[in-house]
Specification:
CATH superfamily of the largest domain: Zn peptidases
Distance between the termini: 28 Å
CATH class of the largest domain: Alpha Beta
Number of domains: 3
CATH architecture of the largest domain: 3-Layer(aba) Sandwich
Number of strands: 36
Length: about 850
């Protein structure tokens, strides 16, 4: 399957589309007095009714119907989802406000970036403007309550005429994303309808409910690899920066009924304090209104910490947005769940037990828990957010200005004045990808055309400068600057055990991408130009006497090579440095029968002139035949992201389910088989869920055809595949399979270590790479890799077969941590992070970390790509 292709250029065009689509109202003549169709009339049941889920296509029809019946909403179809379903943004406000949307958008933009605007004019804008609120639903598709609630919320906003509703419509522009994952909504609805009434009713969807990312789709707010993330980021970070944002989710079933803001400790610093105060303010009003409505089981300031992953609701505070999260206790999709009082328990962080406390004064007593209870709590939270914003319009807008102004001042006077991204990079094309992502966040980027010297360092033409003296300085700080996760009573328990962060300990995307960034303490005094357009480089094509050279250090060179392979072009690869040629460089013949200009345009890489005959120092590169294991039990997100990566760089592959793994003679059909990061027991089906993980319910909850595990037959088949000449590529914990089942003379140095001995929950660590080996061609001598929980570091056992273990990447002797949190450095110092192990006629390539993690770790992609092309010996 080929994914939709996006770029910053697409984002800019999308941005223009959003603005233009709001400029003219298609239903200005709607008569508000006409009847508004209720959800019950349209769908035939109440939202949240037992064993009923409305499907996305019908929801779209309902929203379109409401638009014809009410002049209070405007439905914008932003484009197709990943699988081609409509992605909607719905704007709600008074009719007179909707007629002036572009004017209000510009007012909002000035309040969110007031540089150069006199305070007197700001006060006028506060008086003239409207509060912008954004709320999104059911990003995680099995958390169905949010998208169902959105239907009722839309009806209420379209039909209610009481003072509260009219105040909201007068003072607020509400941008609602009724589903952040339309594809998943359809998948889960169809699955539930298929299983309802059977013994498997209420079981979770068996595969990834976003075709590539599954549950990880809320980790994509910065990198915006999926089109759904592009749509939301365009709205929220560039076009309609809201004053408040809520992402509505569901959580486990056996704790509080409903978590509402604020977050618990620890928080991540460098956002304006007003943001944290606002989250408490909104959250208190939500909790107050829930109690007023007689809804119990509400907790705030617990369970979810303020230092989280950089998904939409955790990156937003650094955009000066009160970015918030609600979490309702889950049912079994739409099937009621009985919960005995003895089953109720506390949650993580500031909720030690399921009993009254100041942030949880009214616990739910237990009993039948229904989807309707989720819908009701979501609707109260969504409405309460709009209500308090409408009642305090001037305060909210003035504080939007203050946050932007104060963050700009902090950036101008802080110890970090700017980040400089030099033009000279190991992978120059990937550095431009980083710039694209920064611009996509609405960050101001400047560029030098002539070069300059700053703090004693010379920077060449094309260097980028990211000043901290701008409203989004907090985002800049965390995605470009070295990060140390806090170690205090909020992160280490009384026994000295570290408490796991919510996701990663650092989100320094420049480090993930292998892009060098200099932090400087003074503002850059040099001629600079603001980058206003998309970074959409077009590569050049210049022929030499012997053809062309592609720089093997660039990730995008692999995409270009795959496009050449598709055209039947023979490509050679350098294995010994010759002149200016480096090991890993690709050589293209002068008579290549392909549109090189088009390939250069699509990839942004240069076809440089090859002036020397490098035949003797190169070999013919071939694209290997790739198979990749895929399972059920909710799917494997690492597998989905790996599919995304392969497709994005044009590597063909075949998905292998259990039956294909256990087939005979795998080596006849495949050259490489990939095992994405996964537990050994989960892959084999022999006890992989016993640790209480996400899919701990077990295989018996799924119909037989959706139960995974290739068993001993699969292990034997993979072993025979390698023995007969194949390459088995493993990531992180999937390395246990060849180590334990093939008897490789390797040990995982951090296996089963308690946190007090070893702890590295998502941190960038320093590594050295043997770039003379074909598996590390194009890598720098030294770089960074992202190391997560359950990743591996390898020691070689003392056996007669040690010579068959080739270390490709290794941790240095000391000072391993670049950003994040690391305990037990000595356990992995001078140990291998990546090993190539000869086995029979083939080999096992073990990458102990996720070199392709979430398609974000561009700096280590080449370790994956190299394994998928032939080397000089095969």
């Amino acid at each position: 399957m080929r994914r939709n292709r996006f770029s910053l250029r697409n984002t800019v065009l999308l941005s223009l589309f959003v603005v233009s689509s709001l400029a003219v109202r298609p239903n200005d003549t709607v008569a508000q007095a006409q009847p508004i169709t209720t959800p019950e009339e349209f769908f035939g049941f109440q939202m949240g009714a037992d064993r009923q889920i409305a499907r996305w296509d019908r929801m779209v029809e309902y929203y379109q119907l409401l638009e014809t019946q009410s002049d209070r909403l405007h439905v914008v179809e932003m484009g197709p989802s990943t699988l081609g379903n409509p992605f909607l943004a719905i704007f709600f406000s008074a009719p007179e406000n909707l007629a002036r949307l572009e004017e209000f958008r510009q007012i909002n933009a000035q309040l969110n970036d007031p540089r150069g605007i006199p305070e007197g004019r700001i006060r006028e804008l506060v008086n003239e403007g409207k509060v912008v609120i954004n709320q999104s639903m059911s990003l995680h598709a099995t958390e169905i309550g949010g998208s169902l609630m959105a239907v009722e919320l839309a009806y209420d906003l379209a039909s209610r005429t009481d003072d509260e509703a009219m105040r909201i419509l007068d003072n607020v522009i509400f941008v609602m994303i009724p589903s952040l994952n339309p594809d998943g909504q359809i998948m889960v609805t169809d699955w539930y309808r298929e299983t309802v009434g059977t013994e498997f009713e209420g079981s979770s969807y068996p595969s990834l409910y976003h075709i590539y990312t599954g549950h990880d789709n809320n980790r994509d707010a910065f990198m915006t690899n999926t089109i759904e993330s592009v749509y939301q980021a365009t709205l929220m970070f560039r076009e309609w920066i809201p004053q408040a944002y809520i992402d509505h989710h569901q959580m486990g079933s056996y704790t509080a009924r409903f978590y509402v803001p604020p977050y618990s400790e620890p928080i991540r610093p460098f956002s304006d304090p007003l943001v944290w105060r606002e989250m408490s303010w909104y959250g208190a009003h939500i909790a107050y209104k829930a109690e007023e409505a007689g809804l119990n089981g509400i907790i705030n300031s617990a369970i979810y910490g303020g230092w989280g992953h950089f998904g939409f609701h955790w990156i937003t505070p650094f955009h000066n947005i009160a970015g918030m999260l609600t979490e309702a206790a889950s049912t079994r999709l739409a099937t009621p769940l009985y919960i005995h009082p003895d089953e109720l328990r506390g949650g993580r962080r500031q909720m030690p037990a399921h009993e009254p406390q100041t942030t949880f004064p009214n616990p739910w007593p237990g009993g039948w828990w229904r989807l309707r209870g989720i819908v009701e709590r979501f609707k109260v939270s969504a409405w309460a957010t709009l209500d308090i914003a409408a009642r305090n319009k001037e305060t909210v807008l003035w504080n939007a200005y203050l946050k932007a102004k104060r963050q700009t001042e902090r950036g101008a006077t802080g110890e970090r004045a700017a980040y400089i991204i030099p033009a000279e990079q190991h992978d120059t094309r990937t550095a431009l990808v980083l710039i694209e992502k920064l611009i996509g966040q609405g960050i101001e980027i400047q560029q030098s055309t002539s070069g300059f010297t700053h703090e004693g360092k010379v920077y060449g033409p094309g260097t980028f400068v990211v000043s901290m003296a701008q409203p989004k300085m907090g985002v800049i700080r965390w995605v470009l600057g070295q990060t140390n996760y806090p170690q205090n009573s909020y992160t280490i328990d009384q026994l000295g055990n570290p408490i796991r962060p919510y996701d990663l300990a650092g989100d320094v995307f420049a480090e993930f991408m292998g892009v060098h960034v200099d932090e400087v303490g003074t503002q850059v005094d040099a001629p600079l130009t603001i980058v206003t357009g998309p970074i959409n480089p077009v590569g050049t094509v210049a022929a030499g006497a012997f053809g062309y050279r592609l720089d093997g250090r660039q990730n995008h060179a692999f995409k270009a090579v795959n496009m050449l392979f598709d055209d039947g072009v023979t490509v050679r690869r350098v294995h010994a440095a010759t002149g200016d040629l480096l090991p890993g460089d690709f050589l293209v013949p002068a008579n290549a029968d392909a549109d090189l200009n088009e390939i250069a345009r699509q990839t942004g890489v240069n076809f440089e002139p090859l002036e020397t005959d490098a035949t003797g120092s190169s070999f013919e590169a071939e694209r290997l035949i790739i198979g990749m294991y895929q399972r059920y039990y909710g799917g494997n997100m690492d597998e989905g992201w790996t599919r995304w990566l392969l497709e994005h760089y044009d590597f063909p592959y075949t998905t292998l389910m259990d039956a294909e793994i256990t087939a005979n003679d795998l080596a006849d059909d495949y050259d490489v088989i990939i095992l994405p990061a996964d537990r050994l027991g989960t892959m084999t089906g022999e006890g992989g869920n016993e640790d209480g993980g996400e899919y701990a319910a077990g295989a018996e909850t799924y119909p037989p055809e959706y139960r995974s595990g290739f068993g001993r037959a699969g292990v034997d088949a993979l072993k025979a595949f390698v023995e007969n000449g194949g390459t088995l590529l493993t990531f992180a914990e999937s390395g246990d399979l060849p180590i334990e089942e093939f008897g490789l003379p390797l040990r995982n140095e951090v296996a089963n270590r308690p946190g007090r001995e070893f702890w590295c929950p998502g941190s960038t660590l320093r590594m050295t790479f043997d770039n003379s080996d074909p598996l590390a061609y194009g890598m720098p001598d030294q770089g960074l890799g992202l190391f997560l929980a359950r990743n591996q570091a390898y020691g070689v056992e003392s056996t007669p077969h040690g010579h068959k273990m080739q270390i490709i990447a290794e941790f240095p002797e000391r000072d391993l941590l670049q950003s994040g949190w690391l305990i037990g450095e000595g356990l992995i110092a001078e140990k291998a992070a990546m090993v190539s192990a000869e086995y029979g006629e083939g080999r096992v390539v073990l990458i102990g970390f996720r070199a392709q993690h979430r398609a974000q770790t561009h700096g280590t992609f080449k370790l994956v790509f190299n394994a998928l092309l032939s080397g000089p010996d095969n």
